């Protein structure tokens, strides 16, 4: 098959759009939207003209979908997430429309290059990591599975910072993704909702003489909707990502202006606009940040008001709200939805408490993404009360009724009552958001088998005792459209060619058909060619951006994810240092040449994580400039790991590092993205690794380390890392080499916080797993030297990865959690 024909095979839907029509549209957009002609157009102008052209083509389907859903009054999923990381839209949308090839030809005819145009796109970095990316994968699958859905969130003006590396340190740069405009969004200035803050609650008597309670906020902000179409693959259906931007209400300005308070007017405007200004760049909550609580309430309130508006428009009453909407809370960040929905129903729509609670509890569903106790969200009651006084009253009433239920269920167990309360009274009074989410939801789920079962025995144990039927597992998944077809077209083509169809893109279980060819020398050769080409492309990119171009002939060993101690990038580093020493002492050691590649951002205030980035660079600097080891060992760091850069990494990796301490990584999703691209995993029995290993086969996965149970046991016995340090000469010398100043120009202080922490506390048991890790790595080293064997394992990883498609995950949510059916939209004749 020719390259073009192969690409076509992956694009099942047709728009009937001719090359000529597409070209005309691009030129029109360049002229009428950008105000440019081709000779003077910048790269960004060209990108925008193409993007507007694609967007226009999406709109027809999108509007058709909206009309159909409205007529049908379909049950709708409302995914509430404070974060979304959709990645660049252009290619994904072209794929969904089936116009990639035509668009490439048009670009060429216009003297441009689609690859270059594509590079110009700024991705919306509206999230921190796995949680935000998961939300984007789920939006993709909801549309593809033809399930009516709206993703609600915040339109941050500044998303996650851009990471640059200066002298080996991470430096954060503001993310100005909206600088050149955003062709994918449609502002809806008329779709605006007021959101209040502060003030007080009071009694009043309504016109029927009933005494009621109401909230008199002292600050009002408007939320304005910005819509981005999210199209399905191979279907007409398109859903909606609706993000809220905060603005000051006009009236506010005038009021202040009239009394001559010009400064006050401007200040109030800035305060209102601050709400959606910037994403908090932490992948763990930071205690008590007022603006963060305001952001959460802001987007939750706008979203619920929007749902209520739609329901009133369609049904005229809110009585069956829960039958129309399935609200999914992406972690506790939107958990205020439970209290806000109660307030809207009771205070503003005059519903009885009992009916409102019935509706609320039957609308909401909660996904937990972490077991780390420090990552469980709480808010000081005083702050909560100051910002949301009426909500605190409602929360207290929810709690009062809930704790009565607990008392009836567990007689004479006040300790349990205190443990389960929505208010933590132990250390300053705090609202426990996970408890609120659990009490107000019909279903609670974890994101991998192990995580869901640990949930029931650790942080949610009491809730599981009370309501076992509410607990579920839905193992995470990722979209093969973005992480295979868009990221790695040559691999997608090879798979389609081998299987004789492209149906696997919608039905990933069909990748199993590759298994029959795993030993085929022809396929193996082509498989290696694809991998080597991807490695070459990554090398070129790294060469351009870091000055170091890794040799594509070496094994690419990649760890790319947020930098966090529990993810143990420093375990990887200890192994590298050990290898370095080993090579220096045994210059003739038989070793597979390897390039260790790291990528990931550290939270700006997370000292240890930033020091780990510094250490990666320090070790790289010494190793990469040591000619004695250069043939065998190199270290690279990819700056600014985001969706776009991830797309360069996944196809190029031979080995994926998933080495968190067992019991700490809820699921992980990078593990799935790598394996889809034929990357083998070295990993612990943590999160979804366990299921991944079961799927791909134990022989095709490099397992090491303690189990979650062993970890617990070891900790209960009292973990003493200094004994391991003193007892293992290789481990000791690796730690000592870092402490010696070899990697820091003689400075013995710089990395002391890392080495001391490992020896004296080692909360993530790096030392305990070191030995097992090192042994497994030696096996990897040997296995890679047998290309046929390695390639076979690589093919089998891809062939057996089907379970980890987000389509499977969304189908499970639809059935087990939401009870919702697809609503296929027909394509126009
Ligand atoms: O969610 C991650 C988990 O750590 C992963 O194990 C899991 O695979 C993914 C998806 O389920 N959690 C996050 O990414 N969390 C955050 O980014 C976050 C952001 C703000 C506040 C708290 C957590």
UniProtKB/TrEMBL annotation:
Protein name: Alpha-1,4 glucan phosphorylase
NCBIfam families named among the record's database cross-references: P_ylase
Family, similarity comment: Belongs to the glycogen phosphorylase family.
GO molecular function, one term: pyridoxal phosphate binding
GO biological process, one term: glycogen catabolic process
Record-level GO cellular component terms: cytoplasm
Keyword Methyltransferase: no
């Amino acid at each position: 098959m020719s390259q073009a024909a192969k690409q076509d095979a992956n694009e099942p839907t047709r728009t009937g759009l001719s090359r000529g029509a597409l070209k005309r549209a691009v030129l029109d957009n360049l002229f009428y939207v950008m105000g440019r002609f081709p000779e003077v157009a910048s790269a960004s102008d060209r990108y925008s003209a193409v993007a507007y052209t694609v967007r226009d083509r999406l709109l027809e389907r999108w509007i058709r979908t909206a009309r159909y859903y409205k007529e049908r009054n379909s049950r709708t999923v409302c995914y509430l997430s404070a974060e979304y990381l959709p990645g660049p839209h252009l290619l994904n949308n072209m794929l969904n429309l089936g116009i990639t090839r035509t668009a490439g030809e048009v670009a060429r005819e216009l003297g441009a290059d689609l690859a270059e145009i594509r590079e110009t796109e700024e991705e919306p970095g509206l999230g921190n990591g796995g949680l935000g990316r998961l939300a984007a994968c789920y939006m993709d699958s909801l549309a593809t599975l033809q399930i009516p859905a709206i993703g609600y969130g915040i339109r941050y003006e500044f998303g996650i910072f851009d990471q640059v590396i200066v002298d080996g340190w991470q430096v954060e740069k503001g993310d100005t993704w909206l600088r050149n405009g955003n062709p994918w969004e449609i502002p809806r200035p008329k779709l605006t909702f007021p959101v209040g803050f502060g003030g007080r609650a009071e009694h009043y008597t309504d016109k029927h003489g009933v005494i009621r309670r109401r909230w008199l906020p002292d600050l009002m902000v408007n939320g304005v909707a910005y819509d981005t179409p999210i199209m399905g693959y191979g279907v007409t259906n398109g859903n909606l990502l609706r993000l809220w931007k905060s603005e000051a209400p006009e009236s506010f300005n005038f009021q202040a202006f009239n009394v001559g308070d010009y400064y006050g007017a401007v200040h109030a405007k800035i305060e209102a606009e601050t709400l959606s200004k910037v994403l908090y760049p932490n992948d763990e909550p930071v205690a008590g940040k007022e603006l963060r609580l305001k952001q959460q309430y802001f987007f939750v309130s706008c979203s619920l008001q929007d749902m209520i508006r739609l329901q009133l428009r369609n049904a005229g009453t809110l009585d069956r709200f829960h039958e129309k909407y399935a609200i999914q809370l992406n972690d506790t960040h939107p958990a205020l939805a439970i209290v806000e929905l109660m307030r809207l129903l009771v205070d503003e729509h005059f519903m009885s408490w009992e009916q409102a609670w019935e509706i609320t509890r039957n609308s909401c569903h909660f996904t937990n993404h972490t077991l780390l106790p420090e990552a469980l969200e709480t808010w000081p009651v005083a702050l909560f009360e100051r910002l949301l006084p009426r909500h605190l009253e409602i929360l207290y009433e929810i709690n009062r009724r809930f704790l009565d239920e607990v008392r009836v269920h567990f007689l004479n167990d006040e300790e349990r009552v205190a443990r389960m309360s929505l208010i933590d009274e132990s250390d300053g009074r705090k609202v426990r958001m996970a408890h609120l989410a659990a009490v107000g939801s019909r279903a609670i789920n974890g994101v991998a088998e192990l995580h869901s079962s640990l949930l029931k025995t650790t942080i949610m144990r009491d809730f599981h005792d009370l309501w076992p039927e509410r607990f579920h597992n839905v193992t995470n998944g990722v979209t093969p459209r973005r992480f295979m077809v868009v990221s790695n077209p040559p691999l997608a083509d090879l798979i389609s060619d081998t299987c004789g169809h492209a149906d696997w893109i919608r039905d990933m279980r069909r990748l199993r058909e590759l298994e029959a060819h795993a030993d085929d020398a022809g396929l193996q050769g082509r498989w290696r060619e694809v991998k080597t080409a991807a490695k070459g492309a990554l090398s070129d990119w790294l060469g351009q951006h870091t000055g170091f171009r890794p040799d594509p002939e070496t094994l690419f060993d990649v760890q790319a994810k947020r930098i966090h101690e529990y993810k143990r990038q420093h375990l990887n580093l200890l192994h590298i240092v050990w290898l370095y020493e080993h090579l220096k002492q045994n210059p003739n050691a038989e070793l597979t040449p390897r390039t260790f590649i790291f990528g990931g951002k550290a939270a700006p205030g997370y000292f240890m994580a930033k020091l780990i980035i510094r250490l990666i660079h320090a070790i790289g600097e010494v190793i990469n400039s040591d000619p004695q080891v250069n043939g065998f060992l190199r270290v690279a760091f990819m700056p600014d790991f985001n969706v776009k850069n991830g797309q360069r990494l996944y196809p190029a990796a031979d080995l994926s590092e998933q080495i968190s301490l067992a019991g700490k990584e809820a699921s992980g999703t990078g593990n799935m993205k790598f394996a889809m691209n034929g990357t083998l995993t070295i990993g612990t029995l943590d999160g979804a690794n366990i299921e991944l290993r079961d799927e791909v086969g134990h022989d095709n996965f490099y397992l090491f380390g303690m189990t979650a149970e062993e970890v617990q046991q070891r900790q209960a016995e009292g973990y003493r890392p200094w004994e391991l340090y003193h007892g293992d000469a290789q481990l000791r010398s690796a730690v000592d080499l870092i402490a010696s100043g070899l990697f820091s120009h003689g400075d013995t202080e710089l990395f002391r916080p890392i080495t001391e922490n490992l020896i004296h506390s080692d909360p993530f048991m790096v030392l305990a797993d070191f030995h097992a890790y090192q042994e497994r790595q030696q096996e990897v080293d040997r296995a890679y030297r047998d290309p046929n064997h390695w390639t076979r394992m690589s093919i089998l990883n891809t062939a057996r990865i089907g379970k980890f498609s987000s389509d499977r995950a969304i189908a499970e949510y639809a059935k087990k959690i939401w009870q919702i059916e697809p609503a296929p939209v027909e394509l126009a004749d």
